[in-house]
Amino acid sequence: MKVKKLIYVSMFATIMGALGLLPPIFTGVSPVPITLQTLGVMLSGSVLGARFGPKYAALSQILFLLLVMTGLPLLSGGRGGIGVFFSPSGGYLIGWILGAYVIGFLAYRMKSVSFIKILLANILGGILVVYLFGIPIQALMMNVSIDHAALLSLVYIPGDLLKVIVASLLAVKLQHSIPISERLEV
């Protein structure tokens, strides 16, 4: 891996940590908090993945989660350690890796960048894929049905849609400042 790509992967892992400085919002409906860190997942996929490819977006999330696993309090609310992976939030955390990959995969293959295309990629990877991992693990850890966990997860949709819009706007702005021909040469 080139040093430039390694720096970008590290930078997006750092962005995830910085977004964790903002306190979580507990809804009282579910033990899984609302955080801004899913915004970081979407940004890593739609910016880093678009420039270097989906594996680099996923690597940024793997690096971040490895740091969390070692005990660094990088998750929102100062959480960290291996125990967070065995909580109702654990599936969502693992979903960040594949979510960033899917967004990066779609963004990397775009011949032309548009807000709608990036928005759809962020919805697919940043919401649907993350929920695909998060909801079953949440159900398992809470000892409830998957249907019940999915119903509880509806509370996250408005905030996640707002994060999708912000990530998409930022990604389009950044991608328009980097011509596609430059992206492909890296």
TrEMBL record:
GO terms for molecular function: biotin transmembrane transporter activity. Signal peptide: none annotated. It is found in: Cell membrane. GO terms for cellular component: plasma membrane. Pfam families: BioY (PF02632). Keywords: Cell membrane, Membrane, Transmembrane, Transmembrane helix, Transport. It is a multi-pass membrane protein. Belongs to the BioY family. This is Biotin transporter. It comes from Metabacillus sediminilitoris. The lineage of its organism: Bacteria, Bacillati, Bacillota, Bacilli, Bacillales.
